[in-house]
Amino acid sequence: TSKSFLSLPLQAKMSRPVQARRLEGVDKNIWVEFVKLAATYSKVNLGQGFPDFPAPDFLREAFTRALSGENHMLHQYTRAFGHPPLVKVLAQLFGKLLGRDLDPMTNVMVTVGAYQALFCCFQAFVDEGDEVIIIEPFFDCYESMVKMAGGTPVFIPLRLKAPKDGKLMSSADWQLDPAELASKFSERTKAIVLNSPNNPLGKVFSRGELELIADLCVKHDVLCISDEVYEWLVYDGKEHIRIASLQGMWDRTVIIGSAGKTFSVTGWKVGWTVGPDRLLQHLRTVHQNSVYHCATIAQEAVAQGFQRELMLYGKPDSYFVQLSKELQQKRDWLVQSLEAVGMKPIVPEGTYFLVADISEFKSDVPDVPSSDEPYDNRFAKWMVKNKGLAAIPLSAFYSKAHKNNYNNFIRFCFAKEEATLKAANEILQKWKKEKTSS
Ligand code: PMP
């Protein structure tokens, strides 16, 4: 009753901090802010990375069949570490790609998107005091997840080499300095996070760069968390090389993938890890103590999608082949639009992101020199509010200490319908015209 509530002693009210210490410094999230801004102001949203075109028919049909078919058990829990048909087909596909026999039960684990796969890795491998090397620019959650596990992120930036005269910048111009990379490894290093193709730059690491990383991992007995969610999105005939296929790397690498990116269904949140049992057994421990089961019907449909792709592997009808062809075209449209208005694009070799230099548009958006806020952050906010075009500031993909070295760029997502990209082009053209006439 209210009477007994009122008579509770004062100290029943909690006055100490309620949050655990591991949440310190990881409470801010760029996506929460920019997704909200885009929802409020954008007419054209090239911000967050998701396609606005439909998922392939074969996959939607597979989902519908699973949903309303006779097997009503597809509405119940499936195997905790992965729906059997999905882990089976993933083991077949990755076995073929890596040239080794994979056991679906021990070498593959399904997760709630690649995001949970990453979380499992950091929780499973990182102890207090461990260092984890992160290559900048990086998908921002790596840093927070390392910190939440008690580890210390150690950052190494890709360094921009000036492109040859008259040539557009390319994501391949962003390179690791070998000596600088070597200097980051020590006895405290537990793991390195590799993301190739890289979000946000679209860089596809070359064999030479991967060998450099692999040699250091072997030399210092370091694990590699290899985020390959954009593995099928590579352009201009480039090859995506899996670091796990290099000498000495299988035993120390976890490959992470995502059906969201592979089949254009980011909302399904089906991801996976592939690797040796000696590593995956610990991911299973985290998984069984956090999420445990992933959605069955989505896994069933993704399994069928992969069965189709395995059959059509390398053939022109394969979705992997078609999607990258279509995206390359979209990339080229966006490159042209940006070039035409003087927002210099860095042509990506992979992913569905493109980073562009905003220097020529700076005069429209006043800088506030004394502010802590990186300039590109201010610019991206101004752009969505005043021009209705949403993009993500590049500094969001850098550690605090390095944000201000890279604050002249914004990232666009080009996995969009032709109409969306045209609408973006119109906004840019109009903006450019207003600039020249003022
Ligand atoms: N890794 C990278 C590099 C990503 O860009 C994303 C999604 N933006 C993820 C992981 C997370 O993927 P998922 O949506 O499957 O959780």
Automatic annotation (TrEMBL):
Name this polypeptide is given: Kynurenine--oxoglutarate transaminase 1
Gene Ontology cellular component list: cytosol; mitochondrion
Reaction catalyzed: L-kynurenine + 2-oxoglutarate = kynurenate + L-glutamate + H2O; 3-phenylpyruvate + L-glutamine = 2-oxoglutaramate + L-phenylalanine; an S-substituted L-cysteine + H2O = a thiol + pyruvate + NH4(+)
InterPro entries linked to this entry: Aminotransferase_I/II_large, Kynurenine-oxoglutarate_AT, PyrdxlP-dep_Trfase, PyrdxlP-dep_Trfase_major, PyrdxlP-dep_Trfase_small
Cofactor: pyridoxal 5'-phosphate
Pathway given in the UniProt record: Amino-acid degradation; L-kynurenine degradation; kynurenate from L-kynurenine: step 1/2
Aminotransferase class I/classII large domain segment(s): 43-424
Listed SUPFAM superfamilies: PLP-dependent transferases
GO biological process, one term: kynurenine metabolic process
EC number(s) reported in the record: 2.6.1.64, 2.6.1.7, 4.4.1.13
Species the sequence originates in: Calyptomena viridis
Gene Ontology MF annotations: cysteine-S-conjugate beta-lyase activity; glutamine-phenylpyruvate transaminase activity; kynurenine-oxoglutarate transaminase activity; pyridoxal phosphate binding
